């Protein structure tokens, strides 16, 4: 990862790019480039050995014009205030492109969770939940999972919030376990939209995804589910990786078996189906039809983009391509399905979870998946329509043109206060 590219600057340049195609005043665009507010807090938490440790955590509430702030909470040693701000901005445009009535937010704790016991992680999570409690709520700000957080953390946050507020409010957070009010299909949703969006992109090119070879960078929830589901569409997954490295077999790998190997050994490296070991950078430049970056920001820099061979990239991660990388890919006519659409399945099914929580009425998995499919396909169509109508260079620009306009419309109809 090239850490010298600041993701918040990437977000702002993406907005500036799209703004040139919109009839929106600079003053309004300026508003759309900055979070409304950012909470920065220091958590003092007791470790298992009785000592205290301090953790810095953030929650950025980027934009609430279209509804309550919405977005995940990540646990990672490289979390920064600017990263959280960028991610909260991407959430704003993500909820807008899929047209669900939510705004954008994001949180993070600077922590490597591997270094802590489960009881320590519970205390850290509950300490953050206590700080968040005055700022969140089903009509205010609704957190969710992100990198290194999942159902377990969401259950703890829900319980802390409900205990402190002396209420029952499952819709305060999404991505929960089914028994805590979670939704069917939520765990798979990010990977599902990533491959539905990729399938639509192949169709747009007059091709069938079933004939595609695929490389997946990152084998966490988004990456491995994408691999599994694209395989179910008939495509051939030839390479997968995680932070320790990757494996490649031009004849194909079994996505589920690779996940089992990672569960057993901690990594996909050494997975026996792999003919060759590859680094993450090598994986990104393999001669495949579809590339799915599913790790962190800035994976595809200008230099790597120059060597990318894929025809289509579907961004399961948030911000995996730097703006300079994007420009190189546009020159090469590589189709990039942008993160704000490709991985929007996660937040879309979070929205379904929130709706079900508020109605206390739960849907079956088939209903969830059908409604998700419909939203992603409709959003893809809105994107390609804008791409053609404005004669844009990239799908990313098209996604921002559509989503910025939606946020602007909500803002302008409401007016400013005071
Ligand atoms: N963290 C996920 C994302 O980046 C999901 C957010 C949510 O479900 O609110 O889209």
* Helix amount: 40-55%
What can be said about the biggest beta sheet?
7 strands, mixed
Alpha-beta content class: alpha/beta
N-to-C CA distance: 43 Å
Give the oligomeric state: single chain
Determine and state the CATH class of the largest domain. Answer: Alpha Beta
Q: What sort of overall outline do the alpha carbons produce when their principal axes are compared?
A: globular
What's the arrangement of secondary structure elements?
Blueprint: H1 7-19, H2 26-31, E1 37-46, E2 52-63, E3 69-76, H3 81-97, E4 104-110, H4 118-132, E5 141-145, H5 151-165, H6 186-204, E6 213-217, H7 221-232, E7 236-242, E8 245-248, H8 255-265, E9 276-278, H9 280-284, E10 290-293, H10 302-307, E11 312-314, H11 323-331, E12 335-337, H12 339-342, H13 345-359, H14 365-389, H15 395-414
Parallel strand pairs: 3-4, 3-5, 6-7, 6-10, 10-11, 11-12
Antiparallel strand pairs: 1-2, 2-4, 7-8, 8-9
Helix pairs in contact: 1-3, 1-15, 3-15, 4-5, 6-7, 6-13, 6-14, 13-14, 14-15
Glutamic acid is lined by residues 70-72, 94, 144-146, 174-175, 318, 343, 346-347, 350.
């Amino acid at each position: 990862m090239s850490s010298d590219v600041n993701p918040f600057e990437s977000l702002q340049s993406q907005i500036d790019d799209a703004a040139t195609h919109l009839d929106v005043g600079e003053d309004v665009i300026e508003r759309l480039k900055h979070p409304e507010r950012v909470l920065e807090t220091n958590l003092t938490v007791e470790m298992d050995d009785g000592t205290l440790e301090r953790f810095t955590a953030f929650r950025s509430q980027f934009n609430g014009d279209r509804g309550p702030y919405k977005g995940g909470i990540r646990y990672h040693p490289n979390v920064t205030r600017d990263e959280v701000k960028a991610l909260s901005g991407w959430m704003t445009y993500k909820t807008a492109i899929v047209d669900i009535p939510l705004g954008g937010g994001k949180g993070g704790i600077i922590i490597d969770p591997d270094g802590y016991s489960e009881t320590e992680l519970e205390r850290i999570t509950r300490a953050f939940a206590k700080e968040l409690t005055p700022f969140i709520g089903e009509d205010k700000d609704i957190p969710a999972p992100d990198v290194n957080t999942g159902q377990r953390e969401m259950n703890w946050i829900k319980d802390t919030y409900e205990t402190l507020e002396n209420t029952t409010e499952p819709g305060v957070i999404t991505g929960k376990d089914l028994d805590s009010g979670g939704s069917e299909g939520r765990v798979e949703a990010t990977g599902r939209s990533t491959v539905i969006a990729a399938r639509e992109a192949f169709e747009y090119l007059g091709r069938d995804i079933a004939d595609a070879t695929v490389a997946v960078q990152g084998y966490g929830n988004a990456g491995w589910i994408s691999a599994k589901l694209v395989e179910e569409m008939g495509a051939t997954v030839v390479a997968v990786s995680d932070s320790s490295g990757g494996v490649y077999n031009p004849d194909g790998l079994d996505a589920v078996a690779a996940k089992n190997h990672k569960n057993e050994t901690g990594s996909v490296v050494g997975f026996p189906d792999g003919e060759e070991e590859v680094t993450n950078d090598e994986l990104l430049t393999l001669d495949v039809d579809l590339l799915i970056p599913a790790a962190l920001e800035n994976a595809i820099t200008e230099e790597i983009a120059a060597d990318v061979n894929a025809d289509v990239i579907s961004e399961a991660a948030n911000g995996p391509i730097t703006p300079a990388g994007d420009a190189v890919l546009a020159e090469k006519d590589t189709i990039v399905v942008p993160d704000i659409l490709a991985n929007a399945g996660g937040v879309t099914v979070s929205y379904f979870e929130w709706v079900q929580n508020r109605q206390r009425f739960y849907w079956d998995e088939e209903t969830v998946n059908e409604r998700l499919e419909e939203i992603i396909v409709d959003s893809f169509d809105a994107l390609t329509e804008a791409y053609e109508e404005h004669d844009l260079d990239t799908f990313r620009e098209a996604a921002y043109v559509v989503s910025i306009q939606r946020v602007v419309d909500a803002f302008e109809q409401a007016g400013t206060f005071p």
